[in-house]
Design a protein that fits this description.
6-stranded mixed sheet, Rossmann fold
């Protein structure tokens, strides 16, 4: 099987780690090819293509360049399936797959995998292509499952495919007894509020040291906050760490974080405190585990924990009564081998299907040959309406066309007003130019008449003098 992975970014994050894990586990069964816009060479991937625009501000011509480049890759490498990841890589990838008559799958990694669109064209296309053209949707959480069940008509195309962990990479940790903890997180706007919640209660819980691993735009602000609250001897910013798993496996009593951080902590047998989404939700135990395993190991829908309950949980860790019975379940359900085999089996079952005429639509898009922004071009919207309005089968799709028609009407009104104003301005300019010409002619005539009078007076005076 020849598989083309298409993604806007392949830099440094959970998505890249998951794709690389799949690649390492399945490269004996699948030949992988990669088409990305932004790529970090540290991944050392084979068969990598990077000459793409993939953005919300690409022009119509650039969009067509991306589609054509993907078609060429598909044809030259006999690609069997495209697996596309967010964000604006989605649209050209689906067009290319369907024009080449091969299946295409999409992965929901989080809410931004769904709500990233911002114009009428991309929102309309995203909803229609997901419903009619995408052959399989993988969701890493039940949240994605619920979202896409409200978008697509065929619910069977939605499959829960969790992120996974390479258990060989994360061995069992040698837990310390120094009451030192590690918090792993980006230090950006959406994370700082949760970290500050912890820092506010840090002196009230039995933790001697907190080491924060991660970097981001708010690192300096966090350092200042630590200093202002006299926590310099207790809280240490460690920055980004390349060998983080090795660092965490020897020096700490527990780890704090959510998502992949939580998964890696569990795989090492470490206690994990869920902190994120502007709340602290306590330690993962068997009850919490069987909930968050469907939520990509986040605390998004969990409540805040009380301070007394948190103290009790930390005490259980130190005295050895912390509930670890779920660890074996995790290793069975989320090992990279288990998830990779599930992924491969789903790909094997895929068949090509298509309800929309993307080939003819794409031909008409190419004929525009314009440098307008593709996703807010009303020429593109007019084509989408022409080709897709007949296929509407769900209320939200109808609503999108109602919005699009309204925006198109407003645009026509605005264009009419702009044309009227332009015509009025041009008319005023012409009148001003005509006035200026008459004024110049009058001034010239006035000068001529004045000269004539002077000459006449000179001659008259000369005669009198003679």
């Amino acid at each position: 099987m020849n598989l083309l992975i298409v993604s806007e970014n392949f830099l440094n994050g959970g998505l890249e780690t998951q794709i690389n894990t799949m690649f390492q586990n399945l490269k004996g069964k699948i030949t992988f090819f990669f088409a990305v816009k932004n790529y970090d060479t540290k991944w050392n991937l084979p068969n990598i293509y990077t000459n793409f625009h993939f953005s919300n501000y690409c022009t119509i011509n650039q969009f067509c360049e991306d589609v054509d480049n993907l078609i060429q890759i598909i044809q030259e490498n006999n690609i069997d399936i495209i697996h596309v990841h967010p964000f604006y890589s989605f649209f050209p990838a689906v067009f290319a797959a369907k024009i080449c008559k091969i299946p295409v799958v999409y992965t929901y990694q989080g809410i931004s995998s769904y709500n990233f669109t911002c114009e009428i064209n991309d929102t309309l296309l995203f909803n229609l292509l997901l419903d009619y053209e995408v052959d399989k949707i993988f969701c890493v959480s039940s949240e994605g499952d619920e979202i896409f069940k409200n978008i697509v008509f065929d619910k069977n195309k939605i499959t829960f495919l969790p992120n996974s962990i390479d258990l060989n990479k994360f061995g069992t940790a040698q837990m310390s007894s120094n009451k030192s903890w590690a918090l792993v997180s980006r230090l950006d706007d959406d994370k700082i509020s949760s970290i500050k919640l912890l820092l506010k209660i840090l002196n009230s819980i039995d933790i001697n040291e907190l080491h924060i691993f991660g970097d981001g735009t708010n690192k300096n602000y966090l350092q200042q906050y630590i200093s202002e609250n006299n926590l310099n001897k207790k809280v240490f910013l460690e920055g980004h760490c390349d060998n983080l798993s090795q660092k965490l496996s020897k020096n700490f009593n527990g780890i704090m974080g959510i998502g992949r951080v939580a998964m890696e902590a569990i795989s090492m047998g470490m206690p994990i405190l869920l902190i994120g989404y502007n709340k602290i939700s306590g330690m993962v135990d068997s009850n919490i585990y069987h909930y968050i395993k469907y939520e990509n190991f986040t605390n998004k829908n969990l409540p805040n924990i009380s301070l007394n309950k948190l103290k009790e949980q930390i005490s259980q860790i130190y005295n050895g009564t912390y509930d670890k019975t779920f660890y074996n379940y995790f290793k069975e359900e989320f090992s990279s081998n288990t998830v990779s085999n599930l992924y491969y089996n789903e790909l094997e079952k895929l068949n090509f299907s298509s309800l929309l005429n993307l080939q003819d639509l794409y031909n008409d898009i190419k004929s525009i040959n314009d440098d307008d922004i593709f996703y807010n071009s009303f020429n593109i919207y007019t084509l989408l309406k022409k080709y897709f309005s007949f296929y509407i089968r769900q209320p939200h799709q109808k609503n999108l066309f109602i919005i699009g028609n309204y925006l198109l009407t407003q645009q026509n009104i605005n264009n009419s007003i702009i044309n009227h104003v332009d015509n009025s301005i041009n008319s005023i300019k012409n009148e001003i130019n005509s006035f200026n010409k008459k004024f110049d002619d009058l001034s010239e005539n006035s000068m001529t008449l004045a000269n004539f009078k002077r000459k006449l007076k000179y001659k008259f005076n000369k005669k009198l003098g003679g």
